[in-house]
């Protein structure tokens, strides 16, 4: 197996939280009862023309730019399975996440959460992901976080191992999402921020 094909995918050790305790539609078919111009009788009022078909609805584009496209939908597929309201993409949060991803790039794509204090202090929930040897997709990033469900007991809220990324993805009270990505040679780091943040001590995600 070549080094390129043996990608190393890593999620950060813990999902970060602030320091608190708490189809496209088809056009309508023409009405078959509407007479054509050649069959209309001169002794009868001309039939009203059939309404023009409405234009097809344009496919809904992913709101995220570039390689981030689809990451909100990937989150929401897992939330929908639990009947949790979907997240919406926030350009403001995306700028916040990208700023930290760019800073991590200057640190050789180190997998480090924002600190709790100082000028870069965390304001939101945060998930991190790193890959080496192969560019990850948005689907793969979210799938890596959600895979932690294997160690999570929803009845008790207890976790075997690491579950913080998963619980942030499906945190019911989180409403907005913004992500960034930075590359360092054949490595990369992804940052997603959530507002309101999740993973409060003593609370279950849903």
TrEMBL record:
Domain of life: Bacteria
SUPFAM superfamilies on file: PR-1-like (SSF55797)
Region Disordered: start-end pairs: 18-68
Classification via PROSITE patterns: CRISP_1, PROKAR_LIPOPROTEIN
Bias-annotated ranges (Low complexity): 25-47
InterPro entries tied to this protein: Allrgn_V5/Tpx1_CS, CAP_dom, CAP_sf, CRISP-related, V5_allergen-like
Pfam assignment, any one: CAP
Domain SCP, residue spans: 66-202
PANTHER family the record matches: CYSTEINE-RICH SECRETORY PROTEIN-RELATED (PTHR10334)
Protein's UniProt name: CAP domain-containing protein
The species this protein was found in: Nannocystis punicea
